[in-house]
Write a structure and sequence with these properties.
This protein is of the alpha/beta class and 295 residues long. It has a single domain, classed as Rossmann fold, CATH 3.40.50. A 6-stranded mixed sheet has the order 7-8-9-3-10-11, with helices on both faces. The protein has a 5-stranded antiparallel sheet with strand order 2-1-4-5-6. Helix 5 packs across helix 6, helix 5 packs across helix 11 and helix 6 packs parallel to helix 7. The protein is globular. The protein starts with a strand and ends with a helix. About 9% of the residues have low confidence.
Length: 295
């Protein structure tokens, strides 16, 4: 498989002599579902923001390449950064939806990178864009809330809307930064199932940072662990030991020895999951067209 993300020698500091990331080297291949774990302050969110182009690498410190093209070199953003931004969907912990707008309009924001500039400026979207957005909402089980204001939705519903926005964007890579940190267990599991389904069914590369280690075991085949700004583990989920986790978090994690089994992970390290795709009880094409007409 070809690498969709390549990171070499990347360091990042926000204050002089206080690096958050220190010489990160990573390669992530197309179609992978990767969990990024580590204690608070280990650099997970900073790494995601660097990949997404929201932050710049420190001067004279490393390169980032997306889909085979360099986007940052030694602290400089290259012209490819803007063009490739539309290929990266970002799902944030706090959803980043505009509360006063309908869920559908929030999801349509995902089309801005692919629509003519004048349409985006005026907020005008084609019939095809609206159908695509509604299909994305259907995919995450939220099409019936398309015309409801985002502020009226629960946290789990808003996060599913944010994922639908990334689907509507047609992103080749989804970066999810603590997407379930503020959700209850049922909503968290559903969000992770949806991300896993997108990865499995669509072949989209997904990198998700998690505090909840059980979800990393249950849904992800590869784990990258950060500690003090450095990569301290990078390998198959099945190879992670309680001792690794104890060293990572600085506490006894022996109870996690049964986490794989309790999380539904088979002996080969792969989680037993059900497909989340479009459900038969959700509206089909005729109703989608009706919702488009009402928008």
């Amino acid at each position: 498989m070809a690498a969709v993300l390549e990171i070499f020698g990347v360091s990042k500091s926000f204050r002089r002599n206080t690096p958050v990331l220190k010489g990160i080297d990573l390669k992530i291949e197309a179609g992978e579902l990767v969990a990024l774990i580590g204690a608070s302050g280990s650099g997970k969110s900073t790494l995601i923001r660097l990949i997404a182009g929201m932050e710049r690498v420190d001067s004279n410190n490393g390169t980032i390449a997306v889909l085979g093209q360099q986007t940052q070199v030694n602290g400089r953003r290259l012209g490819t950064q803007r063009r490739l931004r539309r290929e990266i969907g970002v799902v944030f912990q706090q959803f980043n939806l505009v509360g006063r707008l309908s869920l559908l309009k929030n999801v349509l924001v995902g089309r801005l990178g692919r629509a003519p500039g004048w349409r985006g400026t005026l907020g005008l979207f084609s019939h095809e864009d609206k159908v695509r957005a509604l299909r994305s909402l259907e995919r995450v089980g939220m099409v019936e809330f398309a015309h409801q204001r985002a502020s009226q939705l629960s946290g789990g519903q808003q996060q599913r809307g944010a994922i639908a926005r990334a689907l509507t964007q047609e992103a080749q890579i989804i970066l999810a930064d603590e997407p379930i940190a503020s959700l209850d267990p049922a909503a968290a599991d559903l969000v992770m199932e949806i991300l896993a389904d997108i990865n499995r069914q669509d072949g989209v590369t997904v990198v998700v940072s998690l505090h909840q280690i059980d979800h990393a075991f249950k849904h992800c085949k590869r784990i990258i662990a950060l500690k003090d700004g450095r990569v301290v583990f990078d390998g198959p989920t099945a190879d992670v030991t309680p001792q690794d986790l104890s060293a990572l978090y600085g506490m006894d994690m022996s109870a996690m020895s049964g986490a794989a089994e309790s999380s539904g992970v088979r002996p080969n390290g792969h989680a037993a999951r059900e497909t989340i795709g479009p459900r038969p009880d959700l509206p089909q094409q005729a109703r989608l067209s009706a919702v488009v007409s009402a928008s």
